[in-house]
């Protein structure tokens, strides 16, 4: 069965799902992405790329279907990252102005998908090539994780984002008028949303002028595009809320937030993406080198990054770096704020900022983010629900044709078969037996350990 599906995958990826006979994932324990408790002994039927039905397990096998025995296994929806990046790093290891190539981006798309991340939002810093890649996916000519994109995104001249990316990967408008033109260009490309950076890097770089971000948000809304903002401080978050931003793309990390702030996010229906793995990735591998022992990690990292992280002076240098102390403080506050906002009922999405810097590794870091959410005192079920059903709800707001994140009739058949129970131990999301993306079995699942 596996071989047949693989052969289909190689022939033409997504388009072939239309010709497949129905597949029944038989007798699975189902975590459907809605937040509902696990349902034992379920049959999930996939047809033409979509979930066709979810029923109690059959007693007698129907004919003319492919049956995949999932007895003792758990099926969860494919993970979604609402904040990732493409084409910034070469070999996951080093930033390069030449990294945004067809080949390098496609490699990352496939890596996300193999690790069960079936949809990502590439939240800025894209070359315009991203629109062609997205089109090729729609036409069934390109596989890998499904891309939604904010295109280049809008930063500040000599300011945020403090990454050395070429001008073809970012707009840096000098004033509100230029910013409006940039938004119109994004709309012309049918970007899925707009990204802007509001951050002064602890006062070291110029922040975006209020007139500029206000113009960006106004212009985007005219084009029916939502706006996600890079944010660090509570004051900036409040300014963005007043300017009608739609998504805060990171945690507030300079101070703890209160119920008043939570209420304003709720009142304005704003999504909050905690990206807990963002700060942690700066010191995780130095502080906890055991994380790097698993093949699950090593395959995702690849040899170049692995060599960098395992160099004899890496741990010592990293722990001594002034940035590490700050990152640890920020991570603690981010975890605390997430729990406060989650408990208050704010719309929490799931993202990692993977692909932006070495150490935030496509696929691996999404699994790490689930662990971080659990460390922040969410239950494994709550964490998985953010990464699946809740993120699907966000993506549906961006584009009403997108129905992902739930294992429910009519949704894209994006799912992961796990040989361990992730509700008992969130690390069991590493135990990937198979990934289906739009109804097609993804080849080369990562190693379990
Ligand atoms: Zn980012």
- Amount of beta strand: 15-25%
Output mean pLDDT. Answer: 95
- Strand tally: 18
- Going by helix content, strand content and strand pairing, the class is alpha/beta
Termini Cα gap: 25 Å
Examine the secondary-structure arrangement and name the CATH architecture of the largest domain.
Alpha-Beta Barrel
- State the share of residues found in helices, binned by percent: 25-40%
Low-confidence stretches: 1-13
Ligand inventory reads: zinc ion
Rg measurement, Å: 21 Å
* Helix count from the secondary structure assignment: 14
Coarse morphology: globular
CATH level 1 class label of the largest domain: Alpha Beta
CATH fold field value of the largest domain: TIM Barrel
Biggest sheet: strands, sense, closure?
8 strands, mixed
Quaternary class: single chain
Number of domains: 2
- The name of the CATH superfamily of the largest domain reads Metal-dependent hydrolases
Summarize the structure in words:
By secondary structure, this protein is of the alpha/beta class. The protein has 2 domains: 10-77 and 405-441, Urease, subunit C, domain 1; 79-398, Alpha-Beta Barrel (TIM Barrel). It is built from 14 helices and 18 strands. The strands form 4 sheets. Strands 1, 2, 3, 4, 5, 16, 17 and 18 form an 8-stranded mixed β-sheet that branches. Strands 11-12-13-14-15 form a 5-stranded parallel β-sheet, with helices on both faces. A hairpin with a 2-residue loop joins β17 (432-437) and β18 (440-441). The longest helix is centred in the C-terminal third of the chain and has 23 residues, at 322-344. It is globular and about 65 Å long. The two termini are 25 Å apart. The model is unreliable at 1-13 (pLDDT under 50). The structure holds zinc ion. Zinc ion is lined by residues 83, 85, 123, 353, 356. Zinc ion (ZN) binds next to loops.
């Amino acid at each position: 069965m596996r071989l047949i599906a693989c052969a289909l995958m190689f022939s033409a990826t997504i388009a072939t799902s239309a010709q497949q006979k129905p597949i029944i994932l038989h007798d699975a324990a189902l975590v459907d992405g809605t937040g509902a408790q696990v349902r034992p002994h379920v049959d999930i039927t996939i047809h033409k790329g979509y979930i066709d039905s979810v029923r109690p397990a059959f007693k007698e096998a129907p004919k003319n279907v492919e049956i995949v025995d999932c007895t003792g296994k758990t099926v969860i929806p494919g993970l979604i990252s609402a904040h990732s990046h493409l084409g910034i790093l070469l070999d996951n290891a080093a930033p390069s102005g030449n990294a945004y190539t067809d080949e390098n981006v496609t490699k990352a798309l496939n890596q996300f998908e193999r690790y069960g991340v079936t949809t990502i939002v590439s939240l800025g810093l894209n070359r315009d090539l991203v629109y062609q890649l997205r089109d090729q996916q729609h036409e069934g000519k390109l596989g890998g994780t499904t891309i939604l994109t904010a295109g280049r995104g809008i930063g500040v001249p000599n300011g945020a984002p403090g990454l050395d990316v070429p001008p073809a990967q970012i707009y840096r408008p000098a004033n509100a008028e230029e910013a409006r033109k940039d938004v119109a260009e994004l709309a012309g490309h049918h970007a899925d949303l707009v990204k802007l950076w509001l951050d002064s890097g602890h006062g070291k770089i110029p922040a975006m002028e209020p007139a500029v971000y206000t113009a960006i948000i106004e212009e985007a809304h005219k084009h029916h595009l939502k706006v996600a903002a890079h944010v660090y401080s509570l004051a900036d978050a409040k300014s963005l809320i007043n300017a009608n931003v739609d998504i805060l793309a990171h945690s507030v990390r300079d101070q703890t937030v209160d119920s008043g702030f939570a209420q304003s996010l709720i009142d304005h229906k704003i999504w909050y993406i905690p990206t807990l793995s963002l700060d942690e990735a700066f010191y995780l591998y130095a502080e906890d080198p055991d994380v790097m022992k698993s093949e699950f990690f090593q395959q995702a990292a690849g040899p170049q990054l692995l060599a960098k992280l395992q160099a004899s002076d890496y741990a010592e240098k990293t722990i001594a770096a002034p940035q590490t102390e700050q990152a640890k403080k920020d991570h603690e506050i981010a975890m605390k704020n997430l729990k406060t906002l989650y408990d208050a009922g704010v719309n929490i999405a799931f993202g990692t900022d993977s692909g932006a810097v070495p150490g935030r590794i496509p696929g691996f870091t999404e699994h790490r983010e689930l662990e971080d959410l659990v460390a922040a005192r969410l239950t494994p079920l709550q964490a998985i629900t953010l990464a699946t059903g809740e993120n699907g709800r966000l993506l549906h707001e961006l584009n009403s044709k997108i129905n992902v994140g739930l294992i429910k009739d009519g949704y894209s058949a994006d799912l992961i078969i796990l040989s361990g129970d992730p509700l008992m131990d969130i690390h069991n999301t590493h135990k990937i037996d198979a990934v289906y993306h739009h109804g097609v079995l993804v080849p080369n699942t990562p190693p379990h350990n």
